[in-house]
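Intended use. Records like the one below are meant for learning the mapping from a protein sequence to its folded structure. Do not use them to infer anything beyond what is encoded.
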Amino acid sequence: MQRAIALAALLFSWSSARAADYPTRPVTIVVPFAAGGPSDVYARILAQRLQGALGQPFIVDNRPGASGILGAETVATSAPDGATLLTITNTHTVNETLFTNKPFKLLTAFTPVTPINTSDLVLVTRPDLPVKTLADLIDLARAHPDDLSFASAGSGTPYHMAGELLKQMVHISMLHVPYKSSSTARIDVVGGHVDMMFDATTTMVGLVQAGKVRGIATTGPVRSDAFPNLPTVSEAGVPGYEALIWIGLVAPARTPAPIVDTLNTEIGKIQQDPAIRAAWAKDGATPVTMTPAAFGTFLDADIKKWAEVVKISGAKVDQ
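Structure written out for the chain above:
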């Protein structure tokens, strides 16, 4: 018995020593969405900064598909050695309810590392849709049930659930058109093939400023720095409406605590950099810092929150 305890202690000490040297080889950050979206943009910023701080290459690998499930599964089955990480969003907490046959459970397949940031969404329409305000849009939807369509980056994504929440709160009916990525959804709204979408402020600023789409309202509790002249949805006539997108980082379950703590600490330093904070603020993004344990508690609460929205809205994965 004493020999077994001694061996376990030796193995733990060896594992901790290896973790303390982390990283000893290149690290891959899997982004389970297409290039160009918020998860991709911020993963690349972190990868560049982490590479400089930790002395090993951090490589971003985009693996989109199935509302973020395909890329997540890749990481869930990876070795818990810190060499493969995953960016997640509230798409993944929604998926816990929306997809009943997923190959993993978020809270058991992954070790929480840290949130990265949160940002508002912005509701935009194709430029020639005959509306200028949220009230106009709601009136049009009520006059023509199911005639209006809204695009998203896929069922269960924050963009989809923002639309479902609006439908539920103002009692309107619109057709959900899911795409495989926010970039393709965005192209079809700009091209006039779909009437509207909720999208990240970080990716819509330029298109709104260029008149490619019309900004209607933002989804946070206060006006977005990226769109100071647009009202919030709540201001515009739907009190209490709020739908944000957050991005975080997780590792495979059983990743050693020293590795998780190293990543949490280094990302925290990046988030506090005044240049980073200023750049993110221009895009409407706010850094969010938590301990790994607190992030795990947050994930659990977010799963429960969106489970209620999915239930009430009647959202389905085949929409």
